[in-house]
Amino acid sequence: MIDYKKHIANLINVDLDKDELVNLIAPTADDNFGDYAFPCFKLAKVMRMSPVMIAQKLASEIVCDDVVTKVEAVNGYLNFFVNRNAMVQEVLGEINSQGDKYGNSDIGAGKTICIDYSSVNICKSFHIGHLSTTAIGSALYKIYNALGYKVVGINHLGDYGTQFGKMIVAFKLWGDREVAEREGVAELQRLYVKFHQEEETHPELTDMAREWFVKIEKGDEEAQELFQFFKKVTLADVMEIYDRLNVNFDSWNGESFFNDKMDGPLDMLREKGLVTVNQGAQIVDLADYNMPPCLLVKSDGSSLYATRDIAAAIWRKKEYDFDKCLYVVAYQQNLHFKQFFKVLELANLDWAKDLVHVAYGMVSLEDGAMSTRKGNVVLLRDVINKAVAKSLDIITAKNPNLDNRQKVAEQVGVGAVLFSALENSKIKDITFTFDRVLNFDGETAPYLQYTHARCNSIVAKAGLSANAKIAVDPSAFDNIETVRLCKLLRSFPQIVKDSATKYEPCLISGLLIDIAQAFNRFYIEHRVICDDVAVQNARLQVVKATATVLKKGLALLGIEAPEKM
Predict the structure, then answer these.
(1) Which of 197, 282, 284, 342 is the most exposed place for a label (fewest CB within 10 A)?
(2) Can you tell me the distance from the alpha carbon of 538 to that of 515, in angstroms, rounded to the nearest whole number?
(3) Which domains does the chain have, with CATH numbers?
(4) pLDDT tens for residues 513-541?
(5) The whole model's pTM is what?
(6) How far is CA 413 from CA 343, 439, 554, in A?
(7) How far apart are CA 468 and CA 450, in angstroms?
(8) CA gap 363, 58 in Å, rounded
(9) CA 512, CA 522: separation in Å to the nearest integer?
(10) pLDDT over threshold 70, residue 73
(11) For 102, which DSSP code?
């Protein structure tokens, strides 16, 4: 497609670097004032004229062409009007020819991105607090794939620590294998909560838990068998949820995988003179960088998160030779990532700059933060089930004869839940309420899915074959509703790239909402099925293109688009 900004830059006769000139040109906020604008204020000192006079001078020198049809000088800006009919035909042609590949790119060819996301904890429930990391990480995984990168999705399991000693104690005292196999992680969670309740009045349980964790570390047969059993039960439970959310991983190497891979990195840091001993603990002093010390080894010889994360980063670089490694983790861990990134930088590992903490806001309940120790959680499975059930009720009421109602309800319910984590900037905190997540009106995934289904219905009603040779009346594109909608469709490939650059899937979410709203305005103002076949065919091209982009955009967010609703 035509790069309008570069084309406009070539029309402006100023002594300014072309790349800088292109960066200054931006779409107008109000299309009554054109399609692109160039601010002349930066030229005032060089040209020794007011921005208003500069804009008038430059406008008088520009010769319009087939791409730019008009230029106006307004209050120090150069406003450019492009050939809108040609723009509409170009973007519709691109979408029609590329289909579900529209928005894809090869900018990532030959590059590898590792994404560490979701990272569920063994023996703990998969609750609503895991939704953001899972949804954001999975969306980034799909976005980078579409841009041609080799993507490695990593579920860095929380499968190491004294909590597993606690689980063994709880299981041996109050657990039953058959119940755990039948009830799954819910039973393990019940035992985990019970341990912490009992621990308050029976502190000896804490010592027993430490002893059992040591047995796990030393490879004790019974301890290892129970630990593997807990892991099996947990993963069977979470895999069901991942399947429903359309989330995939390429690596399940968790904390325990790196337990025997820490000596090398620790030796390397010692050899480089970065490790000092403080009250028996081994640390890297980061006072010069306004950070507390990075604790690597406790005084009792045990490792910490930072040690294992450093070992994991070094192993991943050797294994995948990544160009970037993203960590989709809540912003409460900002300090942790700053510390261990800095340690790797101080170790003169040049790839340390390629480690990125993709921080996101926390999810809390209306009555406070969640706690797995107290059992105060909203299970993600329950949220999905309620969303699907409500979807089924609505679909049954509105379209009782719809085929595959249960499947569509699943697509709509799951989409609503995922979109709730992807509709706003990732850093924003969310106070979780069922009413908000299950709201099927307004700027939601069900609204996008319904708009997509409406597009399909219009095309089906017209009886238009996908490969049909059709006559089109281009004058049908000469209206502001079509132009505004097609401008948004045209911006989709760039928004996909921007979402990857800024690690913000919500950029796609926001554009899809804008597209759906613009389409519905177009649909209200212009009857698609009409007596004039050439006009109808032109408008059907707009409808088909809209459906294509909505479906593709939702797919990048991990959300399915039902053909009918």
Answers:
(1) 197
(2) 18
(3) 4-82 (3.30.1360.70), 112-272+298-365 (3.40.50.620)
(4) 999 999 999 999 999 999 999 999 999 99
(5) 0.93
(6) 44, 10, 14
(7) 26
(8) 52
(9) 15
(10) yes
(11) T
